[in-house]
């Protein structure tokens, strides 16, 4: 049997505007600040070490001066398949999930005008490039017996400061309208407490004026946690570059950014103690983030016979973002008479949060390359970026978040290496990336590295390039931001295949 006042479904769609809290955590904000470009197959196979090379569409995204290296007009279209296997370890319980994502990850063109205007300007070039700057494709499954905590502690933390009357459905109200009003006037925490109280997980002690959980798990509780994320951070370059006095190259990018992320969490708990009134808990949360941003880049290249150096500045990206959440809560309980209940709290409310802003850190890329005649080349990029400079606004709403960013994040120095060997019309390539964790505490995310290789064949007006990039990343994932703070270890094995078609004309 069910408690009908809770199980009642609503066929209409409502909107509320929580004002006291935003949905994003520090880790989410860091993800928006990480550049992990997925470019042309040549770019990928050489580890992205193109800051001093140019002559590749994706090189524009590293150093905008690189488009002036082109000798002919060029169009490029790139495809990729991103395969991930995420292994999890939660209280010595192992699980794994494998996913695959196909996409058109890069496309654009460069137009070259030689002897433009005469004088010291040998060449001027214009470029347009659309590229995946970071993929949020990430699914994993965590399960195991937790002997320490249940999700009830998450709800208890959020219930602090509220009373039973605050979280009750009054006369002439519905579950949906009460949930909406709580979000509008008291924020996210009030809504979480409401779900648990109306779902009969929490009860209220009128004497001590506090909530308590009716769940018992002295022998532990089995937890099944699914996290599914999809989305992208795309970057669009509008490029202008010049070749000055043959050996000097200067460039400018005006960039727009587009973010879309959808994260779905499904957390279920079973196997409570035999005398527990709560037999199972199901909690679902869907977060959708969308937004847009602006940035610019400046870059320069210098040729010295067979040696080249480059420097590029990436400005901060100024994002405007919007969050939207939907939630669902369900419990299975039993009363003292042994009667079973299934209690569902399904407000069918979409919580739309006020627009907020994120300013990501700027970066400097120093590059050098050696050209070995017509045989091949060696290239290296060093990228410096200070993640502690991330800022979220409005300042008054992100005081604690900004303080945590400043205290927990640090500067990083990433290294990219690339090489290419040319055998007539056939090219063989290899690359290596070393990426430092932006966190001072590497217990959260550890340093990582990747290896890549590829090849290409020049048919004349058309070039076909292929690449394969392999990486392994290790991180600890905290289930919830409070209460249920236990961590699972995640090891991600990633394999990215890319194919590019290049048209010269």
Describe, in plain words, how this protein is organized in 3D.
The protein is built from seven helices and 23 strands. Helix 4 crosses helix 6 (188-198) and helix 5 (175-186) runs antiparallel to helix 6 (188-198). It has helices at 4-7, 26-33, 41-45, 152-159, 175-186, 188-198, 399-408, and strands at residues 14-16, 74-90, 93-114, 121-135, 138-146, 202-205, 210-213, 221-244, 248-270, 278-304, 307-314, 318-334, 340-345, 349-352, 356-359, 363-372, 376-386, 391-393, 411-423, 426-435, 448-458, 462-478, 487-504. The model is unreliable at 1-22 (pLDDT under 50). The termini are far apart. It has one domain (4-412, 442-504): Porin. The strands form two sheets. It has a 14-stranded antiparallel beta barrel. By secondary structure, it is mainly β. The protein is 11% helix and 55% strand. Strand 2 (74-90) and strand 3 (93-114) form a beta hairpin.
Characteristics:
505 residues, mainly beta, Porin, 14-stranded antiparallel barrel, two-stranded antiparallel ribbon, 7 helices, 11% helix, elongated, disordered N terminus
Helicity level, as a percent range? 10-25%
Q: Identify the CATH architecture.
A: Beta Barrel
The number of strands is 23
Shape: elongated
CATH topology: Porin
State the strand order across the main sheet: 2-3-4-8-9-10-11-16-17-19-20-21-22-23
Which regions contain 5 or more consecutive residues with pLDDT less than 50?
1-22
Strand-pairing-aware structural class:
mainly beta
Q: Can you tell me the number of structural domains? A: 1
